[in-house]
Write a structure and sequence with these properties.
By secondary structure, this protein is an alpha+beta fold. It has 16 helices and 17 strands. The longest helix has 52 residues.
C-alpha cells in the first residue's frame, strides 16, 4: 500500500477506493494469465505468497480451459452429426428429383424434429445391456408392471400366473417417444403393437369409413344403411392413462384411422409378436382368452355403429365381457372379484398402484349371484377399484306424427303394475347393442305397420355407488332413435290428421289433470308368457314424461 503509483508522491494507500479495488482485481487476474502488473513483491513473504497464487492459478485456469474445450468439442460433434444428416438428406432429395416444395417441407420438418427433446427410452441407453439379466428383469418390472396391471385383462392374467407379469414386462414391453405432429399409426398400417399413453395428448380420427372394420364383416352382412360418411366420425382426444390399439391383441387388424400426437408423448408399447411368444409358456391363459378374443373381434367387425368412431383404440373390457358366454366371462369376473375379497400374496400386490378396497362377505355373495345370472360383470374401474357394470339397450321409436312407442304397464295374473318406460333390454351372450335393438323389435314389441329406420345412436355412461353393495356401478346405456316409416306416404298425412291437438294439461307440473288424456290412449297388448302381458301405447313426448312421474301412478291405475 506504501508503493508509489508513479514517480510522484502518490501511493496506493492514498488512492481512491475504486482505484484500489481495480488494482487488486487486476493483480488477481495476472496470477492465472500471462499478463503483467506494476504491483510486485517487496519481500520474501510476499514473493512466497505470490508463487503459491501462481501455482493455484495454473491449475484453475487449466481446469476452466479444459472444461470449456470439452463442451465446445461436444457441441461441434453433435452439430456435425446433425449437419451431416441434413447434407445427406439434401443430396438424396436432389438425386431423386424430389419436387422443390416437397423437399423444403421435408427439410423443415427434419430441422424442427431434430431440435425437439424427447423422453429417453431404453433403446437410447445401450449401457443397460451390460447389466445382468436378473437386474434388467427387475428394472423392466419396476418400469412397466404398474402400467400392465391397470388393464382388466392383464390384471386377470397376473392373478392366474404370478410369473407372467414380470415375463411380459421384460420381453414384450418398451417405451416409445413421439414428437409433436408425429403419427403413431395411419390407415392401412398393420397393427403390431398395443399402446398405453403415459404422458402427452393424442388425437384420433377414423378415415376409412366401412362399418365392417379393418378385416371385413365375418357374418357377410351387407347393409348400405350402416355406411358412415366422413362427417359422421368425430375426433377422439386421448389423455394420459388411455389404452390404444388393443384390437391388435385379439385379431389380425389393419388400422382404419390416424392416431396423431398433439404434443410430445411418451407411450408404453406392447409388441404383439413378443407377447405371443411369452403366452406360449402359459397355455391355460391362452385357453381362457379364446372367448374374449372372439367377442372382441365380433364387436369390432360387426356392422353395429356403436364402436365405429374408435375401433382402432380400445373397447371397454366390461362391454367385451358382456358379449361373451356366461360360462367364459365368469372365469374373468370371479378372479377379479376374489382379488377384492381377502388378503392376497401374489405379485400383483407388489406392483398394484393403489390400495384395493375389500368387499364384505354379504356384498360378495350378492355379486356372485348377479354374475352367475348374467346380470352384470365386474372389472377394474378408472380408479382401479372394483367396478360393477350393467349394459342396457334402449329404443326411442317415433311414428310419422312424432309420438313415442312406450311400455306403460305389465299385467300378471290379472294384476296391473304401472311401468312407464321406453322399450329396453339387457344384452345377452355374444350380442351387440344393434342386435339387441333388433331383437326387441322382432320379439318383444307389438306388430307395427311400416319399416324401421335407425337414425342416430347415443351412448350414455352413468356411474354411482351402490348403497347395497358398497361399490361403484356403471350403467352403459345405448339409446337408438328409430323412425317408423309407413309403406305409403299418404298414410303419413292420414295419421297426422287423425291426431288430437295437445291439451293444456300435459306439463309435468300439472299433476292430477293427467286424467284428461288417459281415456283416449289406445293400448296395444302383447302377450309375453302365460297370464302375463305387456301394455304399449303411442304417446306424445310430454305425455310420456308426465305419465312417468311418480305422483301420477294412482291416476294411471
Amino acid at each position: 500500500l506504501d508503493m508509489k503509483i508513479s514517480s510522484g508522491a502518490l501511493t496506493y494507500r492514498s488512492a481512491t477506493p475504486k482505484f484500489q479495488y481495480l488494482t487488486a482485481l487486476h493483480w488477481a487476474f495476472t496470477q492465472m494469465t500471462p499478463g503483467s502488473m506494476s504491483v510486485v513483491p517487496q519481500n520474501s513473504i510476499e514473493r512466497g505468497w505470490n508463487v503459491c497464487c501462481l501455482v493455484i492459478g495454473l491449475f484453475v485456469s487449466a481446469l476452466l480451459i479444459s472444461q470449456l474445450s470439452a463442451k465446445m468439442v461436444r457441441v461441434q460433434t453433435i452439430n456435425h452429426d446433425r449437419l451431416q444428416q441434413i447434407d445427406m438428406l439434401g443430396r438424396f432429395l436432389n438425386e431423386q428429383d424430389v419436387p422443390r416444395t416437397l423437399a423444403q417441407r421435408i427439410r423443415r420438418q427434419v430441422r424442427e424434429r431434430a431440435s425437439v427433446k424427447k423422453p429417453l427410452t431404453i433403446q437410447d441407453l445401450p449401457s443397460l445391456s451390460l447389466l445382468p439379466t436378473s437386474l434388467r428383469q427387475e428394472l423392466s418390472s419396476s418400469i412397466f408392471a404398474r402400467t400392465v396391471v391397470t388393464n382388466s385383462v392383464f390384471y386377470t392374467w397376473s392373478l392366474l400366473e404370478d410369473a407372467i407379469l414380470e415375463d411380459l414386462s421384460f420381453r414384450a414391453l418398451e417405451v416409445e417417444a413421439f414428437s409433436r405432429s408425429d403419427d403413431i399409426f395411419v390407415p392401412m398400417q398393420e397393427a403390431k403393437k398395443t399402446y398405453f399413453l403415459r404422458g402427452g395428448l393424442l388425437r384420433y380420427r377414423r378415415e376409412i369409413f366401412s362399418t365392417r372394420g379393418g378385416q371385413g364383416d365375418e357374418h357377410g352382412e351387407d347393409d348400405d344403411d350402416n355406411v358412415i360418411s366422413i362427417n359422421d366420425s368425430p375426433e377422439v382426444h386421448l389423455a394420459p392413462k388411455a389404452w390404444m390399439s388393443t384390437i391388435a391383441l385379439w385379431c389380425n387388424w389393419t388400422y382404419v384411422g390416424t392416431l396423431h400426437a398433439e404434443e410430445t408423448c411418451e407411450l408404453v408399447a406392447i409388441n404383439i409378436e413378443n407377447m405371443l411368444e411369452v403366452l406360449d409358456r402359459y397355455p391355460h391363459i391362452v385357453n381362457i382368452c379364446i372367448s374374449y378374443a372372439s367377442a372382441y373381434s365380433l364387436l369390432a367387425t360387426t356392422s353395429d355403429t356403436e364402436h365405429n368412431s374408435h375401433v382402432d383404440l380400445d373397447l371397454v373390457p366390461s362391454r367385451v365381457l358382456m358379449a361373451m358366454p356366461i360360462k367364459d366371462r365368469l372365469t374373468f369376473c370371479h378372479d377379479i372379484l376374489q382379488s377384492f375379497c381377502g388378503p392376497q400374496t401374489s405379485v400383483v400386490d407388489q406392483y398394484f398402484p393403489v390400495r384395493r378396497h375389500r368387499l364384505s362377505s354379504s356384498a360378495r355373495c350378492r355379486l356372485e349371484e348377479e354374475l352367475n345370472a348374467g346380470k352384470c360383470v365386474v372389472t377394474l374401474g378408472a380408479d382401479l377399484q372394483l367396478l360393477r357394470t350393467v349394459v342396457l339397450c334402449v329404443l326411442e321409436i317415433t311414428n310419422p306424427s312424432g309420438h313415442l312407442l312406450v311400455q306403460i304397464a305389465s299385467v300378471k295374473k290379472g294384476e296391473l303394475t304401472p311401468d312407464v318406460v321406453l322399450p329396453a333390454t339387457k344384452l345377452r351372450e355374444r350380442e351387440s347393442t344393434k342386435k339387441a335393438a333388433q331383437r326387441i323389435i322382432d320379439t318383444e314389441l307389438p306388430s307395427l305397420d311400416g319399416a324401421m329406420h335407425f337414425d342416430t345412436m347415443h351412448e350414455e355412461e352413468k356411474e354411482m355407488k351402490s348403497k347395497q353393495l358398497g361399490i361403484r356401478t356403471a350403467y352403459l346405456k345405448t339409446l337408438y332413435c328409430v323412425r317408423l316409416l309407413p309403406d305409403d306416404l299418404s298414410q303419413v298425412v292420414a295419421h297426422h290428421n287423425n291426431q288430437e291437438e295437445p291439451t293444456a294439461s300435459l306439463g309435468l307440473e300439472d299433476g292430477p289433470p293427467t286424467k284428461t288424456f288417459l281415456p283416449r290412449i289406445k293400448v296395444i297388448e302383447v302377450e309375453r308368457d302365460e297370464d302375463k302381458f305387456q301394455l304399449y301405447a303411442w304417446l306424445r313426448r310430454e305425455e310420456f314424461q308426465q305419465l312417468a312421474s311418480p305422483h301420477h301412478e294412482e291416476d294411471f291405475k
